Amino acid sequence: MSQPIARELELQVVEAWPAAESEELDGWLLRASGGPTHRGNSVATLAAGSRFSVAERIARAEDWYRQRDQVAMLQLGPCAEPAGLDALLEQRGYRRHGESVTALAPARRVAEATRSELQTRVDARPSPEWLGIVEGSSRHASSKEIFRGFLARLGARCRFVTSWVAPDQPAAVGLGISSPGRLGVYAMHTVPELRQRGAARAALHALASCALAESYAELYLLVDAQNAPARALYAQSGFVDAYRYHYRIQGGA
After folding, report:
1. Residue ranges per domain, the chain?
2. Alpha carbon distances (Å) from 213 to 164, 206, 207, 218
3. Poorest-confidence range of 59-63, 98-102, 138-142, 191-195?
């Protein structure tokens, strides 16, 4: 993938997950929100000015997170600046954590590949069924208010998708977040005991159909590189890997 497209995507991802608190540091964006999300509690390293040396900017970031009782965590993708940042953080004892994939797909291709007979619904606001699944068994279940804060900051950019495996059994959810030219696919989750019944595929189809109806030609999503079932579903649905990213966390192993 070309560097300009990767940077465009990375900027859209940053804007699609606005932190509760953020501060610009000479090109870096320091973000703090609490909860389990790394994106909302890490440094976006997409630009670096010349005001501070690398060592000084890292020290300032560490101090900013220390004041919030957090350890510094930096997100590192193909556009991380300054050059050589990943290696420098490793030398300073920052441990590498996680690896995720950003993937892209034409919305029309996803819609065609995920046709389903299951009932789905797209809402402008989170329905009781949608919240029940997200706050019942997803990774956001233990930090409900923090997640609701993200949704409130996103406002009208959100599309809330729910799919059912039976009239009284909502089974999967997804969250579409609009960006220029693209709809981001976030917060995909299926109730554990209702997996392998096509609910996630139906939710993807609803999001792709929503994107087409609103003239978004492309979908993007972020997925844990080690999540084999999710990656298989997305590949079957037309998504192609664009780039990978990971985090560096202060404090070593």
Report:
1. 3-101+245-249, 103-242
2. 22, 10, 10, 12
3. 138-142
How is residue 16 written in tokens? Answer: 């699609």
Closest CA to 30 of 17, 16, 42: 42
Distances (CA, A) of 78 to 10, 58, 81, 155, 245: 9, 19, 9, 29, 7
* pLDDT, tens digit, 9 for 90 and up, residues 108-143: 999 999 999 999 999 999 999 999 999 999 989 899
Q: Are 108 and 219 in contact, with CB atoms under 8 Å apart? A: no
- Structural class in CATH, domain 3-101+245-249: alpha beta
Helices (H), the chain: 3-15, 54-66, 85-91, 107-113, 128-137, 144-154, 199-213, 228-236
Per-residue b or e along 53-89, where b marks 16 or more CB atoms closer than 10 Å to that residue's CB: ebeebbebbeebbeeeebebbbbbbebbebeebbeeb
CA–CA distance, 133 with 143 (Å, rounded to integer) = 14
Class of domain 103-242: alpha beta
List, for residues 172-207, the tens digit of each pLDDT value.
Answer: 999 999 999 999 999 999 999 999 999 999 999 999
The tokens describing 122, both together, are 């797209």
Q: Which amino acid is at 43?
A: V
